[in-house]
Amino acid sequence: MLRSSLALLLICLAFASLACGPSLYLDEGRFALFRPDIGSGPSLEPFYYSERFLNSYSPDPAGKDYQRNCAEWLAYTGGKVKMGDIYTLQYLVDPDAFFYACTVKDGGSLKDNTFFQWLRRHKAAMEYMTLAKRFEFAQFKPADPWNTSNEDPDGALLIEVADAAAARCRSARDPFLRERYAFQAIKAAYYIPEADSVKWYFIQYLAHSKSLLKGWALLYYGMSQEGTARTRSLLQSFDLSEEKKVFCYNHISRSDLDSLQAVATDKETLQLIRIMRALKTPGRALDLLREIRAADPESPYLFLLIGREINKVEDWLWSPEVLQFPSAIQENVFHRLFPDSLWWDGSYERYAIKNQQKDKQYLADLKDFLTERMQPREADRQKLLLALAHLDNIQGHYATALMRHQDMPPFADTAMEIQRLIDKSIALAYVGDVLQPALRQQLAANILRLKALNPAMDTVRKNEDYYDWYASEDATMERNDDLGELLLLLSRRFHQKGDQVTAGLLYNKANLTLNIYDGSPYISPEGAYYRYIAWWDREAAPEDIDSVLAYKHRLPRNDWERLIYPGSWAGDDFYKDLKGTLLMRRKQYKEALTVFSSMDPRFWEGFYEYKHYLPLSSIAWLGTVAPWDTVAAPRYAMNSKRLIAADLVMLQDSIARERNPERLAAYYYRLGNAQYSMTYYGKAWMMMSYGWSSREGKGAVGSFAYFAFYPNNQRYGADYYECEEAIAQYKRVLALSRNREKRAAALLMLSLCDEQAHAYNNSGTDNQEHFTSGYRSQALRSYGRTQAVNDAQMYCPYFN
Amino acid sequence: MSNTLSDSLATSFGITHFYVRYLDVDWSEQMQIPVPSSGLGYAASLPSAMAPRYTPVIFITNRVFERISDRWCDDSLALKLKAIVDEKTKAINEAYLTTVADKVRPPYVAGQVYNEDSLRSRLRDSLARSPEEIQIDCDWTVKTRDRYFRFLRSLKKQFPGFAISATIRLFPYKYPGKMGVPPVDRGMLMCYNMDRVDNSRARNSVFDLATMKQYLTDKQYPLPLDAALPVFGWYAWFRGNTLKGIIYPAELGDNDLRDHFGNSGNGYLLHEDYTIGNHYLREGDVLRKEMPEPAALEEAAQLLQQQVKGLRRISFFHWDTRLLNTYDNTIRKIYATF
Predict the structure, then answer these.
(1) Nearest to B269 among A14, A283, A345 (CB)
(2) Closest CA to A620 of A592, A643, A587, A586
(3) Is A769 in CB contact (< 8 Å) with chain B?
(4) Is the ipTM of this complex over 0.95?
(5) Nearest CB to B18: which of A8, A283, A328?
(6) What is the pLDDT of residues A435-491, one digit of tens each?
(7) CA-CA distance, B84 to B281, in Å (whole number)?
(8) Considering only CB atoms, which chain B residues are within 8 Å of A11?
(9) Which of A339, A523, A542, B98 could form a disulfide with A346 if both were Cys (CB 3.0 to 4.6 A apart)?
């Protein structure tokens, strides 16, 4: 191979191509119940705290700059046109429509637009607007993703417009229009680019302007400069305009701020540096907030920054606790069980706890900071009270939160009122007795009011069957899921107080993604939807399911019941199947059979995944797992938990009746087989669990993406993974039987269970070397000449 | 083309062929068609050493072939790609032309007429044959295999004078019966990204020699092959067992690892809460270093030479002058092997 044929790949890295499989949308795993728009309003929305780092790319979401521009035009016209018409013509009419209207005698579609008609009577202003629209046309062409010429605006047209703007700027006598021509010239020169022109026109015409255009032009002026001058201009543009904030933010790096700070002496610049730094801080920024407040207690950015710190604290403390996304302490069950299993420090838990303590301290510091500011204007005082009450709730100081809310009146401001209702509801639920109808009714009233204030919350909740709504381009949905997050907190409270029906219904109603397996988000046509029963599968006792069914068949009687009543239910048999399965896990086979017998006998044939995972051959017969059992296994007439449970009950009854030790041993052997079949390794695992995955293990914790049998693995793991009950039956065989074949078969099954339990107990660790059970050695040593051992050696790959 | 550092590196290594990512294609749920998602931004930013001999590479997400309609699969996608490849190739060649013309143009002499058009025309002729191959990069699955292969056939029709190559991951290399063999002229065996980066127990998800050995077989793959080894890496950022993100070496300050982390096996354990770029790392977080070991790369190259019959090129992914310096000796040693 010749050297000349060597190659070097030039391909950029694509992170997305590395990690396939389920993933969360940004902010989907973040728990945030504090409204960042309190105080700062929607115009600063891009800078709300978010996993996206920059919350959105919407320039000026509140449209403040556009309104200011329209107001300037309105003043210029002497108030002779409608403000709305200025807005329409400036921002809603595309250039083609505008040019067409200019060619039509009566103005065509703009004939009723007072601003357009005014322009027609004022030639100089019309000439300016025409140029502005031509510029707009040159910048934005119809979007065709395959048209690569989209990458560049129409260069020739831009140059033409730039030249025209510059010429008219120099010749215009009207200062209002001259500033606007100057702005167009600056903007065009930036795109062409002609940096010198930018500087000249800015300094000449806009540097001392009071117009909104100064803030916009500062961006282009700044971008034409280098070093600290550039950073300074961009910071000023950030401050003076709304629409250019995101661009400026994106074009100022932390090192730019360092450089400017080293030379800046004026307090305005230093304050803007602090603000920008705080906005760029994903971690704790309280020290910066202190400096910002000290420099200007009325800073318009202060409430935004306070909201960001509160959202951070929520993320650090509530997301792990409520949604169970890292850094959950629960995450480290695995580490606790296998402290030596990973290549790095095996105990992450202590860091999680330490970080949690630090975050709690930070929360306390934040409260102190807010308390120090409790003397400002009344409007701000209420906002601070809301913030403090919310922090109380995060701390679990519900009574204090409730006390702060006692004198708080309903607010006219939507964001503040939503916040009030959320925090009051949390405090009420955790201070009072949620089992009392009066309190439930109070919660219902608050929730109904929340829905009325933000109908989007309700839209999300109604769409219970599909929760893929985080895929929006900004974090709007994070705020629209506030009701879901509130319901989730209420669900936890009802669970704590023992009302599992309400807790489960609230959980389903919340419809959020937790780091725990709730099944596919897509509903199957026949309603075989694990999400219907997932919460109760994890948390309920068999008798709770009766209450769920009773609730289902009782029409809601009041607001609270109407609120938590699901939009759709699974069929009764799905809940009954869950009850029976819960009983099976508890080895209450007879009770389970009673439940299964009350169901449609064919239920398991056409619903969920039963048909694929419930065996048709008797679970007391193990087939190729135990080739020494040469008798053909009896077959069930259909896939049915009822038939399997009946098989078990029959074995239990036979054991209860039988007195002959050998026959009793044979029954115990069959019972052991049946119980082995219902383990993770057996053919009837679905008698115990609603899912199976290779990721299951002793330390497996919840995962939103993969089935893990969590937390049932911690309750029933001994039987399900370590075959404890099956092992007990095989040991009874050894105790009862003198028959060498029976004893050999029991030993062989014991060795299989033992080795599988060992593998399970060491899964995920480095201790995975081959393990040979003592039972196997005993079988070979003492029963090597039996048919059972011969068959095992002949047919069982695991045995050799 | 002004990237003199890249040019001097290319000359220093004696590299004569480059694979240049032209664009990525992903599926647009909104438009229900495949769309270009990102790609080569500005042709003139390519080092001039790359222009004479290079292969355009187009990455297409597997999702495209899960959703693509028959019409786009058999016709439209290849047509659109043809237009873009032609356009980008022209832009690269023209930019290269300008660079070369600047070098060979005789000095200006007052009063002497110089024919610039003639010079450019001659240079353009000399570039007419480049590129000669188009490479498609797609991590196809059994489910998308048929549609992907149909697309490759339609692409071949659009580029009749070109060789079409496809990237082959290790799994389809080992199991051609199950995964199928793309209907192309040759394959590029991709020897990296061997584990899930979110697997907290993986030692190195980018490159692991032991994993690679499991996939290499003596059986001859039905296509002539090139092979690609990684000269890139990053730090996989874990909190407990959960991947929090990727930290690229360029995001780390010079002393970040020394001042804020301690060594912990294959990773770095953070001693205090710390911000890296836009990431807020917490005490106890771990950065798992995922840079291929030079010795492992050298052994991998030897293995490839021994086991992949008829290997034409060994390639390195990807072009990053900082990382190339890190792997300088390794790359030279491997070149020497071949």
Answers:
(1) A345
(2) A643
(3) no
(4) no
(5) A8
(6) 999 999 999 999 999 999 988 776 544 444 444 444 444 455 566 788 999 999 999
(7) 41
(8) 19-21, 57, 59, 137, 317-319
(9) A339
